[in-house]
Amino acid sequence: MGFSSAKDLFFEYSTFGGETNFTKSIGSAIFGLITTVVGLQLSLISAGLSGTGISIISTISILLFPIGIIYYTFKSATRTTDSKFHTRLGRSKVMATYLFIGGFSVLLLHTVGITIMTQVGFLDLTVPDILLGLALSLGFAFVVAVANYSTLSDSYPSLSKVLDVFETESSEKLERIDNKIEGIGHVPRSETNRILESIHEPDDLDDIIIKGEGGVGKSGILKRVSENSEHDILFIDASSYSIIRSESDLAEELGLDVSLETCIQQVAANRPFVVVVDQLDDTNREAGEIYKNVILAVAQIDSVSTIIACRAYDLEHYSEFVALSNSEYIDNIITVNTLDESKVRDYLEKLGVTSPSQDLVNLCKEIEYLDVVGRLANRGSELENLSEQVTVWEEYRKLLEEDHSSDDQLRGTRIVDRAVEHAVRTTESGSSVFSISDRQWTDQRLRSMGVIQRGSKSSGERTFRFRHQQFQLYLYAWDKVTGTVDDENLFRDTLDELDENINNDVVKWMFAVYTDQEGELPSDTAEFLEEILDDVDGFGFYWASKIIDVVKKWDAAQNQPVTNTVLEKLETREDLYKYFFDAGTDPSWAEALAEAGKFQSPPSHLLGYLHEIASLHPEVVKEIIREDVSELDRRSQATVVSVINELPLEHGVELADIVQDGLEDQEPTIDLYYSRASEFVENLINGEFFEEGLELADSLLRVRLEGEPEGPNDEMMSSYYLTSLFEEGTLERLIENRPEESLEIFEENMRTAAEHRAENRGQAVEELSFFYLKSISNYGIEQNDRYQPFELYIGFLREALDNWFEISTDEAQKEKIESYLDEYPVFRGFGFYLLKEYGEDHENLVAKELLGEENYSDIQLKKEFDLLLKYGFEYLSTDHQNQVIELIKSVPIQDTFTQIAEERQEEQEDMTVDEIAEQYSSRWIRDRLWPIREYLPDDTKEELSELVERFEDDPEGPDTPAVRSGAVSYESPESEEDLRDRSPEDLINFCIEEPFEEEEWYESDSIEETGRTGAAEKVASIILDEPGKYASELPRLAEAPESYSTRLIGQLEDRIEEEPEILDSESFRTALWDLSNQIVTNTDQWPSRTRKRVGWLLRDGFGNADSYKYFLIEENKIRNLIFTLTEDPDPNIERDRPPEGYAGHNDPSHNALNTVRPVALDALIIYARRKADDESEELDSEVKSKLEEKLDDPSLGVHSVFGRRFVTLWVADQDWVVEHLTDIFPRSQSRQDKEKFTAAWDSYVAFNKTYKDIFPVLRSYYFHAIDLMVEGENTETVNADQRMAGHLLTNYLFEFDLEDWSDSLLAYLYDRSDPDLARQVAWSLWKWGDSADENQALSKWEKTRVLWKRRLDQVGEDETFSEELSWFVRWLEHVENSVELDEVEGLLRDSLNHIAQNRRAWATLEEYLSTQSNDYTETAVDIFYKLNMRYERPMHHGFTEEAEAILRPALEEFENGDETYEKAFEAAQTYEAEAQSFLDDHR
Q1: Which residues are registered as beta bridge partners of 1010?
Q2: Where would I find the H helices in 1396-1440?
Q3: Average pLDDT over the chain, rounded to whole?
Q4: Where is this region: Disordered (predicted)?
Q5: Quick check: bond before 1194 cis, omega within 30?
Q6: How far is the C-alpha of 1065 from the C-alpha of 1059, rounded, in Å?
Q7: Which of 821, 676, 803 is nearest to 743 (CA)?
């Protein structure tokens, strides 16, 4: 430790980290020391004090001073804000520092004073002298301790006082929150446990924002958190201090003498502490800014959790609060949703409301209104007319008015008047509390009725507040409207009078009351709306939106002047225009827009409005699209198709002509419209509207051929949509129902595609060559040939033919094959394909083609014909087989080989032309006989065996791909034999000098590109066949073009998995690492693809169990390579974050696979795991340092690797992972941390299973991930959402998540009311069961049943969740033989509404009931009866065998007239003619 560090340490412990005055403390001590010494010396000199007396005094001092030192040091420490002084060790260090200073001072004083004055040497000191010195040292320390305590006492209150103030404040504010509802009790919320879990660990306290609309129960949640937290709490109700002007004002209001931040630091230095700020939105803007600053400061204090509650709108729109939601210091934002509908219905039933209206249910989803309704219900109020918020408060006010005795009819009115008086005074003062009088009976009655409640905990205080602030504001508004009806500026005056923090809600209530006074709107409503919606002098967005909330629910046809005014003014307010039109807007406004011509060249948000209401009001939307929508640009037309897609299909099909016109009315264009039209066609076909679907499909196929892409990715996306259109049974359904028409469409478009391809190549279509590259079998809907129409349509036609052949007659098949064989080469290729696949029934056609000599010389169809030979040969009769063998032996293309031999004779001077030709012919015979070898006669087999032995290369079969690296076979300009003959030095020189010219095309019996790529492949293969031989020259490969090194490293990466011994040669390894080092260190000279190849080699090498040890032999070199690659400039920001529409956009895991630094980090982690496995030790410091450095890498691709390899890191060094969890998965709300979290987390769940030992560590991170996914903050990482659902499901099924259900991750997810995530969980459950055997599925049945029931209880009949619930129904497919109907009867009955929305769920139910009907006839028939009588069957779902099996026992075993018989009969009758025969048989 240097002098400077020692000095800093000395001052730190002598002044409590700078919180006391060193000079003052030491000065006081020195002064006291000198005074004491002088006094003692005077006593000695005057003989007034003996040595014995000094000894006694010193001994007493030695005993007492330490007690004082400890006492004052402890008292001082509790007032400091540094946690180390609150520990025993810290206080000991402080006291040690005091004693050191005291001892040093006494020794110094002795040297300077006593020795000089008394001439006594240091070693001549007596016992009294020593005791005195020790006493003086302790006295000095004591004085310092007292001085420090004095300073700290002046600066800070005591810890106990701070805690008392905090406890008093918290208790008072929490007392105000009543989170129990009359008649219901406490309503549990999953958010409570989510928050408690986030603040459970003292060393890992989260800072949290909870947001939600007003009245959803945020305060109640915070009260439960405060009551159940294990830590000390400060609960601040910001609405109580809503008009503060400085931080000191806040401290003063709380009763603190110093700043709130300092006091919190004091407490946090001593223990974990939680600060809760409620009602943050209920402050004015100035106070909001002050709270923001305090919150951000407190959030940075260690051992403190800050929890804030704020309305969602304020959090997202007010700048001071937006800063909080984007802060890096906030870990989680938790959205508090309204209650689930099913829970609301249950609660209302508890209140005695057994048949609530939907409006009442919607109202009571907000806790505040459920509370009020509970009070109204328990007092006998009529609830049928409660449909809006204002009607709830009207009813509540009337309840107060009705509280009167028979002798005083005005009693109730006086209670309301007193409540209004309090409301007006409180609202206008900007406060939330008011005083009441003991002498006012009305106040006592308001208290007893629960309208007002105590605002202060102290019983002697008369401070009260309204139980419901919204009722306070409603009363204020009601008084203003009813008392000043003639005031033309009523609303404007009110806004000017009130503080901004409350006038928003007041305006809303005033307008609600204002328009609710009569059966029709007041006469001046139009003028009022014109004023408030004015774009210059009108209300701001938030205030105006409160008015709009009321207006949008009116019937627009009832008051045309008002409607015209609203539409006219909204056009000048784009933000309000977008806000006004949504699913909650009365559909009459859509008709009003149409009548006003607003759908002629409409803005995008109006079309978005149609999209939102399409499924709710299909007739209205259909009529508007047909009659009123016009003058659209192309993007708007695409939006209209999206709207049509949202219509129920029976309505959407009526608009198919509009979609058709959009495809044909202009030059063919591949754009967004095209993609939307593809989705529509898929829906039509799957809905069995085949004529309309086929016509549109034909147009889509033609446009794909002729259209020009609008954007860079439109061509690719159109192929994707076309492929998706015909996937998953759509094509099969088309062929099955419209076989000839469908096949004709695919044939005609295939012809057109072939003509386009030929034209683009400057060829006649008869000259078009294709099937020498890939077989038709290689093309299909699910293949990767999604970009070019020609290849795409080959796949479409091939799969269409396969389906057509399954249902066609032999004669029709024969005609089809013959028609193809008579066409030009492309269709002849299809003819060969069909003979190969279905030739067993068409032996004569196969024989005809295999005996046609011209086919053996047809280069255009070589690949397809060779496949026909291989697979069709077995279909031939023995005679025909022998004829084909003789034809092959005769070599029908002998003339071609003779010509080739003449051209190449100069290259092979040691052979004659005949010998060269014979060699080609023999190899040709070998390659033709080899695929049919198992059918050859014995003598021919012997001939083939001789030919195979004669040639070194292996026979080529037709299944061997003719293409490498894409659509071209790359060949070397020099033969492999010649290259092998070169010396190592000469071979590398060949690569450097490249003594050849590239030829783009070379045709013999294939198409080749001759040049560098082919040469690089051959050279790489030659070097790797004998690596030791070429080792000495290998580093010089760096002088050659990069292709040679890239191919070498790429081939090595491919080969080491099967041939790890390729790295046996030490010289080769040394040369390879030297070459790699040149590549990775010279980033300007080597492209990223070569550097990436090095990274891939290292990654895959360490990942291979057989090869990784070779990489550890020269470990230092390998580490340096990896470390160098981790600093590579690739990816830059553009490569790491591609813009929308480009591959890798919002998909860090995709970019991580294709850029250098992420690949290098991947290799580093795998290397670290191998080292840990081999040496059974933690990561070494250098690796840890590099990993920690990469945690700060700005690349999201790099960060995603930490998630992808999380389990690998865990196994390598669990302690390191736990220590850096918050770096791998940062949970703050800053944009950067959100991006890093989702990059890592989505990769973690997408590429890893969940593990029981890891889950507890990540549990809180799962919560955070759910929050972000619900907010739409996740990435596009492939299958991340599905795999996340799978993780959550696994945690539930296998009991990793052992919390009570209400505390579990799944419960929290379901409370987020996200249908898509919930559906993914249910699908994952079904998928797991689908892959399990029946016993495994049955073992999880109970958990599945419980989860199914929970979801039904939670979502009721809400069809938004029908797709999710259908997967639970379909789980019966896995256990139908083991689960009896009486076990699932209730679940099935409660699920009927959801089953009716899903074709497959309906079919599953039928199948299950058909297996149960014999044993449970009455129940099975009743369920089936109710399903058919109450709900509409899925389109085209007919009377199935399963339906017959369900009903048959009832009709056979029960008498006519019996209830079960009648239900079965009526259920069958719903199928009309389809079931007639069945009913006839059972009359």
Answers
A1: 971, 999
A2: 1399-1412, 1417-1430
A3: 83
A4: 950-981, 1129-1151
A5: no
A6: 13
A7: 803
Cβ–Cβ < 8 Å for 150, 72:
no
Q: Which residue has the tokens 């890893």?
A: 1248
Q: Where does the pLDDT of residue 1339 fall: very low under 50, low under 70, confident under 90, or very high at 90 and above?
A: very high
Q: How far apart, in whole angstroms, are the C-alpha atoms of residue 1375 and residue 668?
A: 51
A 10 A CB-CB count for 810 gives: 11
- In angstroms, the first-to-last Cα distance of the chain is 104
Residue by residue, DSSP assigns 788-837 as -HHHHHHHHHHHHHHHHHHHS-HHHHHHHHHHHHTS-HHHHHHHHHHHHH
Residues 6+ apart with CB under 8 A from 15: 21, 22, 25, 148
Name the residue with tokens 């011209």.
854
Give all strands of the β-sheet with 452-454 in edge-to-edge order: 434-435, 463-466, 452-454
Question: What CATH fold (topology level) applies to the domain 159-337?
Answer: Rossmann fold (3.40.50)
The whole-number average pLDDT for the span 1286-1294 is 90
- Average the pLDDT over 842-860 and give the result: 88
78 pLDDT band, cuts 50/70/90, is: confident
CA gap 186, 227 in Å, rounded: 13
At residue 25, the pLDDT reads 59
> Does the pLDDT value for residue 29 go beyond 80?
no
**For residues 703-727, average pLDDT:** 68
pLDDT value at 388 more than 90: no
Task: Output the pLDDT for position 1069.
Answer: 93
Confidence at residue 234, expressed as pLDDT on a 0 to 100 scale: 95
Query: How remote is the C-alpha of 491 from its chain's centroid?
Result: 44
b/e string for 1451-1481 if b means 16 or more Cβ within 10 A?
A: beebeeeeebbebbbebbeebeeebeebeee
Across residues 917-941, what is the average pLDDT? 89
Mean pLDDT for 1020-1045 is: 93
Tally helices (H) and strands (E) across the chain. Answer: 80, 15
Sorted by sequence, the CB contacts under 8 Å of residue 1345 that are 6+ apart come out as 1383, 1384, 1387
Distance (Å, whole) CA 1363 – CA 1370: 11
Q: How far, in whole angstroms, is CA 498 from its chain's centroid?
A: 43
Q: Which of 373, 495, 482 is nearest to 417 (CA)?
A: 482
Distance of alpha carbon 1091 from its chain centroid, rounded?
Answer: 32
Q: Measured between alpha carbons, how far is 65 from 1318 in angstroms, rounded to an integer?
A: 69
Tokens of 934: 């198992």
CB 645 within 8 Å of CB 682: no
Name the residue among 505, 518, 511 with its Cα closest to residue 552.
511
Helices (H), 180-270: 190-198, 218-228, 247-254, 260-268
The Cβ-side half-sphere exposure at 532, using a 13 Å CA radius, reads 29
The whole-model pTM stands at 0.69
CA within 13 Å, CB half, 869: 29
| Domain locations in the chain as residue ranges | 3-155, 159-337, 338-387, 389-491, 881-959, 1413-1481
Mean pLDDT of 511-526: 68
Strand arrangement of the beta sheet that strand 999-1003 belongs to: 969-971, 1007-1010, 999-1003
In whole angstroms, give the CA distance from residue 1172 to residue 1168. 6
Contact status, residue 1191 vs residue 1202, Cβ threshold 8 Å = yes
Strand intervals (E) in 172-242: 180-181, 185-186, 208-212, 232-237
The pLDDT value recorded for residue 120 is 46
* CATH class of the structural domain 389-491: mainly alpha
Q: Are 703 and 722 in contact (CB under 8 A)?
A: no
Strands 273-278 and 232-237: parallel
Nearest to 768 by CA among 783, 751, 747: 751
Give tens-digit pLDDT for 888-927.
999 888 888 888 778 767 666 678 888 888 888 888 898 8
